[in-house]
Amino acid sequence: MSGTNGTAALSARGISLSFGSAQILRDVDVDVRAGEVLSLVGPNGAGKSTLLGVLAGDETPDAGVVSLGERSLSALPAKELARERGMLLQKQLLSFGFRVREVVEMGRAPWHRTDRADFDDAVIAESMKRADVTHLAERYFPTLSGGEQARTAFARLLAQETPILMLDEPTAALDIHHQEQVLEVARDAADAGAAVVVVLHDLSLAAAYSDQICVLSRGQVRAVGTPAEVLQPELLSEVYDHPVRVLEHDDQLIVVPVRRTARGGK
Amino acid sequence: MAVTTAPQTGSLRERIAGSLATRVGLFGVLGALLVVVVVAGAGQGAVNIPANEVLGSILHKLGLDIGTLPTHPRGEDALWNVRFPRVVLAALAGAALATAGAVMQGVFGNPLAEPGVIGVANGAALCAAFVIVFDLAFVGNWTIAVAAFIGGLVTTFLVYLMARENGRTEVVTLVLTGIAINAMTSAGLSFMLFMADTTAREEIVFWTLGSLNGARWEQVWVVLPLAAFGIAASILMARQLDLLALGDRAARHVGVDVERLRVRAIVVVAVLTAGAVAFCGVIAFVGLVVPHLIRLIAGPGHRLLIPASALGGAVLLVAADLWARTAIVNADLPIGMLTSLVGGPFFFWLIRRARKTAGGWA
């Protein structure tokens, strides 16, 4: 793992990006630190996935720079970048009927013809176990359910063994057990020194697993800090344009929307 | 969760052994089939030469005094000046077309991409017709091949730019783009026919029907390097083509320089298509049928798919050519007609199968 805990593995400064006339990101600063889980939260269209795309090097910002350690992200060739950061996308694509194990094996591609390729089989087996897809190894990927596909893609990400992990709404297709499991694994990775950045919609999940939460609204950073600092009812109610309450239960923060009809209606 | 790793290593070993057996078996069967069709193809014709004499003649040419030479007085001559160039050209064209199909399907992430279906073969044909009509010969023997290469390259890029969206090409868009491209190239081809004098017209017509009639060694020497280069380059990019199946974005995340791979793949497809159509004309569906059959047997991994498709394409086209020469006595049927005759129903079958298994292509 590169860097010691707390140092910025990936830092973005002054990021602005427009698609046509729509400005998606406006002067965004964000740091992804080794040993920490950073959650990006915010309403639909706030620019979370786009920011993740910029951090991954998929999108080139109109202004601002992303630096990976000492180097600028845009200067790195695709292969070198793939050894630094891995990404789990929201939607899984696969054009042909590969088996689950073959898909996970694709995560080892950046290490092809390096010393680390010797550990391919062990890493693949371990990654499949952590993502709970070992029993699906011989199944064809297109025949899996959405959640199983997402877990297979997660196993592929783990097999890539990058010091930076990026997850774009990893829990969207998953049941409660696997939601917790995926974030648990991400948390473990961070505890082992990885820098993890994850886009989440469920604020209670973000509260439970993050060291830092970054609230985005209309392409700008509204707040960054620990869950306790950031998850304030006033701020969230304003950002989401909906009244929100923050409860504390068993030392955990739980964020719930205020529901008018739940009290028998008006 | 409670899965131990012990059965995993066992199944892993079995899997490796299984894939090795598939590999050896597949290449063994395809290689044996190729030898059979080549010997049969070389033996059949106006002068019939039995298989043992064909083999004997080949061995003698290789400096081995084994087997009997052709007993027919013109046997040796027919074999080496007429049959072998034709059979070898058929094998090379088939290998090139099937490889081009496999690579193109990988790059488009789409099982229907094929030089004939999306109009690349026609684009190559148009440029070749242009050369024939205006009687150009700027690079000698290679002129038609070079023209076909340029035509193929331009049409492939055109289709690629127009049909691709968000890292994949939807089947409907691809096929509709192919229809549009085919309409334009057909119009161009019609115009070339209109412009041509009688001899050139006849040459173009036969060319578009696809035929291996009158194959010569000089043609083989042009097609051989093109096919060899194309197939070797395709095998080298096989690993990356596998990753491209994840979609553009995810492929980039695992280290593929997607833009560069695409451009390289398109150039390779154009080289292969040009090599195949330069002297044989338009032979459709080989690039569709062969990779699909191989995928059914050996799975979608390109490291196996590409070399196996090359072998399978060679077998198919040599066999098809044999059929084209012998189906009707004293008639040399256009081979492009025969491959389309078989490929059309195959296309139907593919559509039916996709609808049953995956709810169709969208």
TrEMBL record, chain A:
NCBIfam families: PRK13548.1. GO terms for molecular function: ATP binding. Keywords: ATP-binding, Nucleotide-binding, Translocase, Transport. Pfam families: ABC_tran (PF00005). InterPro entries: AAA+_ATPase, ABC_transporter-like_ATP-bd, P-loop_NTPase. This is Heme ABC transporter ATP-binding protein. The lineage of its organism: Bacteria, Bacillati, Actinomycetota, Actinomycetes, Propionibacteriales. It comes from the Bacteria. SUPFAM superfamilies: P-loop containing nucleoside triphosphate hydrolases. CDD domains: ABC_Iron-Siderophores_B12_Hemin. Residues 10-243 form the ABC transporter domain.
From TrEMBL, chain B:
Pfam families: FecCD. The chain crosses the membrane at residues 20-42, 84-104, 116-138, 144-162, 174-196, 220-244, 265-298, 304-324, 331-351. It is a multi-pass membrane protein. Coiled coil: none annotated. Keywords: Cell membrane, Membrane, Transmembrane, Transmembrane helix, Transport. CDD domains: TM_ABC_iron-siderophores_like. It is found in: Cell membrane. Belongs to the binding-protein-dependent transport system permease family. FecCD subfamily. This is Iron ABC transporter permease. The lineage of its organism: Bacteria, Bacillati, Actinomycetota, Actinomycetes, Propionibacteriales.
